[in-house]
């Protein structure tokens, strides 16, 4: 029995169930280039008024300058009543602070910056956490829960569309996205509509790409040129009652029939696009050439050009090249210049330029090492010379030993150690051996010359011996045919010689304690010792 009544109930209750709260419409609005202000004469508490503004993309109005104050005066038009402003007391305060510019309030945007205030005279107020403005434009503290007579909303935009220019044309009615309507707007925010019933036009303010908002419509092509130039980005002309847009030279008409675009717009050129009439040509940067596809660019191998752009070495790079010089040369002012021979010379101390090279030299107290002409070794050409000292100790040249009592390097007299078999001459840091007639020098020994011979031969400790191994000074005499007394004399002489050698060796060992292996290395060179030091094998010493 209830089923037949169900459709009737749904029919009656449907409109009530689907009814939505009516969104209030502004009683007036004023728009500037980037902002719109609207007045709503509807009694609501502070929170309800704030929600209405937010649903349309705005907030309760902030009055930071006299410009905003003038906008309020135009909107209120001397109508009595109090309107909510976008000011609320800071949550950290329970009462107002009359000594502060905003009395402890802050804007609904979260900041306190302002160049303008217009408070009505009052003292400290507690519990009144919101602010209204009257037709006298005075600000007053009020309780947020109590409804005010209305409220002011503010909407901000990145740009706006201008009023449609139609000095002698039809009437244009505008409608903003927050519900305001009128014919006197000077600027319209994006998404606003312009209605021209006489021409059957409905235009929309749309965000342009880079150029800012502009009026447009869904249908392509121009509208009558008398209304905002037909919406053309270029020029508008009417032929046989139809409006048509055209673009300046070097531009093409866009797809909507009103805008203008460059022929290079959307071109795939890798480097540069150049307009050529109503078309375009791709071009490449210096060092590249256009590829076969007409849009890509490929590197030019500059080093393969004839003649080569570089003096010595050429290294190709992307879009260019780099010139380099050979070893021993350097780049100066774009040219390769030969480096001085001493620029990379490995001389330890000094380097001297020569016509075809260089020569290393040493500081005083040093001489060029004969085994390595780039290094320097200690050198002394007198019997005494000062040592060279550093943090590890003091050192003397080869063939010298340190006398710590007088802090001098003293020459070692090798002749005292009987290095030579016959004649020995001591020199600073070295010695010389000489042989009598009929002998020749082998190492430091004198060997009989087979078949005779005249003259004296000498050996200098300054140079290496002729043989890498020691050679006995002479062959020992055979035992046969010798008288027993002679044998005894020979044995006694050998024993005395051995004792003398031991004593000399002990004496030398004591003298060489301060020297660094001075007994094993001797100066190699002429008597004036201009070159360096040279090792003498220890096996040649008796």
From TrEMBL:
Q: Where is the EGF-like domain?
A: 299-337, 411-447
Tell me which positions the record assigns to the signal sequence: 1-19
Pfam families per UniProt:
cEGF, EGF_CA, EGF_Tme5, hEGF, Lectin_C, THBD
Q: Which residues form the C-type lectin domain?
A: 32-146
Q: Where is this region: Disordered?
A: 456-478, 515-542
The entry's localization annotation reads: Membrane
Q: How does it sit in the membrane?
A: Single-pass type I membrane protein
Where are the bilayer-spanning segments?
485-509
Query: May I have one GO cellular component term?
Result: membrane
Supply the alphabetized keyword list: Disulfide bond, EGF-like domain, Glycoprotein, Lectin, Membrane, Phosphoprotein, Proteoglycan, Repeat, Signal, Transmembrane, Transmembrane helix
Oligomeric state and interaction partners are given as: Interacts with ITGAL, ITGAM and ITGB2. Interacts with thrombin/F2; this interaction switches the specificity of thrombin from a procoagulant to an anticoagulant and antifibrinolytic protease. Interacts with ANGP1 and ANGP2; these interactions significantly inhibit the generation of activated PC and TAFIa/CPB2 by the thrombin/thrombomodulin complex. Interacts with PF4; this interaction enhances generation of activated protein C. Interacts with HMGB1; this interaction inhibits HMGB1 inflammatory activity.
Main function = Endothelial cell receptor that plays a critical role in regulating several physiological processes including hemostasis, coagulation, fibrinolysis, inflammation, and angiogenesis. Acts as a cofactor for thrombin activation of protein C/PROC on the surface of vascular endothelial cells leading to initiation of the activated protein C anticoagulant pathway. Also accelerates the activation of the plasma carboxypeptidase B2/CPB2, which catalyzes removal of C-terminal basic amino acids from its substrates including kinins or anaphylatoxins leading to fibrinolysis inhibition.
What this protein is called in its record is: Thrombomodulin
Tell me the organism: Poecile atricapillus (Black-capped chickadee)
Which gene is this protein's source? Thbd
């Amino acid at each position: 029995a209830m089923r037949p009544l169900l459709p009737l109930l749904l029919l009656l209750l449907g409109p009530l169930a689907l009814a939505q709260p009516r969104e209030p419409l502004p009683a007036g609005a004023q728009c500037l280039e980037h902002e719109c202000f609207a007045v709503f004469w509807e009694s609501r508490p502070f929170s309800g008024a704030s929600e209405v503004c937010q649903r349309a993309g705005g907030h309760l109005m902030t009055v930071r300058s006299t410009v905003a104050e003038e906008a309020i005066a135009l909107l209120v038009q001397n109508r009595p009543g109090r309107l909510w402003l976008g000011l609320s007391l800071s949550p950290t305060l329970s009462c107002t602070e009359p000594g502060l510019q905003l009395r402890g309030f802050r804007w609904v945007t979260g900041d306190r910056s302002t160049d303008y205030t217009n408070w009505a005279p009052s003292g400290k107020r507690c519990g009144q956490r919101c602010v209204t403005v009257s037709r006298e434009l005075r600000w007053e503290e009020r309780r947020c829960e109590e409804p005010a007579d209305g409220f002011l909303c503010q909407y901000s935009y990145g740009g706006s569309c201008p009023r449609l220019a139609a000095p002698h044309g039809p009437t244009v009615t505008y409608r903003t996205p927050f519900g305001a309507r009128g014919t006197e707007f000077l600027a319209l925010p994006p998404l606003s509509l312009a209605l021209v019933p006489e021409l059957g036009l409905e235009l929309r303010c749309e965000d342009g790409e880079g150029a800012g908002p502009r009026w447009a419509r869904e249908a392509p092509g121009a509208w009558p040129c008398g209304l905002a130039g037909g919406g053309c980005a270029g020029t508008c002309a009417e032929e046989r009652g139809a409006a048509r847009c055209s673009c300046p030279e070097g531009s093409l008409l866009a797809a909507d029939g009103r805008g203008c675009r460059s022929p290079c717009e959307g071109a795939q050129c890798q480097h540069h696009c150049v307009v050529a009439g109503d078309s375009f040509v791709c071009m490449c940067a210096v060092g590249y050439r256009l590829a076969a596809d007409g849009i890509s660019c490929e590197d030019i191998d500059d080093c393969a050009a004839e003649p080569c752009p570089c003096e010595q070495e050429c290294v190709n790079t992307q879009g260019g090249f780099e010139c380099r010089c050979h070893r021993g040369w350097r780049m100066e002012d774009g040219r390769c210049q030969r480096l001085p021979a001493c620029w990379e010379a490995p001389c330890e101390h000094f380097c001297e330029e020569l016509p075809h090279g260089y020569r290393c030299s040493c500081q005083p107290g040093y001489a060029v090492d004969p085994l390595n002409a780039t290094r320097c070794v200690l050198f002394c050409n007198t019997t005494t010379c000062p040592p060279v000292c550093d943090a590890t100790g003091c050192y003397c040249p080869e063939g010298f030993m340190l006398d710590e009592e007088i802090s001098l390097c003293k020459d070692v007299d090798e002749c005292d150690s009987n290095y030579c078999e016959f004649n020995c001459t001591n020199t600073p840091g070295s010695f010389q051996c000489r042989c009598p007639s009929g002998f020749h020098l082998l190492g430091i020994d004198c060997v009989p010359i087979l078949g005779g011979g005249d003259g004296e031969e000498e050996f200098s400790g300054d140079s290496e011996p002729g043989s890498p191994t020691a050679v006995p000074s002479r062959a020992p005499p055979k035992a046969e045919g010798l008288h027993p007394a002679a044998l005894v004399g020979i044995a006694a002489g050998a024993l005395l010689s051995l004792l003398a050698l031991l004593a000399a060796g002990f004496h030398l060992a004591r003298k060489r304690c301060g020297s660094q292996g001075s007994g094993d290395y001797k100066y190699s060179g002429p008597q004036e010792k201009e070159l360096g030091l040279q090792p003498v094998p220890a096996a040649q010493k008796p």
